[in-house]
Amino acid sequence: MIKVHYSALFKKDPGWHSRAESLAQRCYEILSFLHDVLKIVPPQGRCQSIATYHDGCQGLRELGIKHQPRELLTGFKELRLRELKEPEACCGFGGTFCVKYPDLSGRLVDDKVKDIAQTGADILLAGEMGCLLNIAGRLRRLGNPVRCFHTVEFLAGMADRAALGEGMDG
After folding, report:
1. Phi and psi dihedrals of 40, rounded to 5?
2. How far, in Å, CA of 144 to CA of 147, rounded?
3. I need a surface site. Which of 46, 48, 120, 144 has the fewest CB within 10 A?
């Protein structure tokens, strides 16, 4: 919101519009900040798992987050990152979308769960909490053992928890 849309709220007030644009230029999505601004070296770690990555709609379409999380994960030895067939397909959450259109939302998250299953992954990574909560909730209701992590959690040592079989609900 702040990065892309906030300044539009102040179009009729040049002073505030300028301030909002200045703020937007200083705001980053966390994975972009770690990769593009701080240029951190991928942390070294071990995780004998298969992971897949879900590209959230806002991060992907509005902020251009695509390669950053994947490159940040390259430091994990033994972690096999397998792409979804449709990594850019919506999970069906979309804020109020899932409330306004529950049937369509349910079909979208079911498609995402099937896509995750075809990778053989035991870990799902993503950069958007709404997506993770939606997908993790559906996986849990289906009894699917795939563990879900925000990519920053994983980078910050959650790989150790992943190896122990823990995840968002663990």
Report:
1. -70, 150
2. 9
3. 120
**Structural domains for the chain:** 1-39 (no CATH), 41-163 (3.40.50.11810)
Task: Please name the helix (run of DSSP H) or strand (run of DSSP E) that holds residue 54, with its range, or none.
Answer: strand 50-54
DSSP for 73-140?
GGGEET-EE---SSTTS--S-TTTHHHH-HHHHHHHHHHHHHHHHHHT-SEEEES-HHHHHHHHHHHH
47 DSSP assignment = -
Q: Can you tell me which residue has the tokens 């349910």?
A: 106
Low-confidence ranges of the chain (pLDDT < 70): 158-170
Print burial letters for 146-166: b (CB count within 10 Å at least 16), e (below 16).
bbbbbbbbbbeebbebbeeee
**Which own/partner contact pairs does 36-42 have at CB distance under 8 Å and 24+ positions apart?**
36/68, 40/72, 41/75, 42/71, 42/72, 42/73, 42/74, 42/75, 42/76, 42/155
Mean pLDDT score of the chain, rounded to an integer?
90
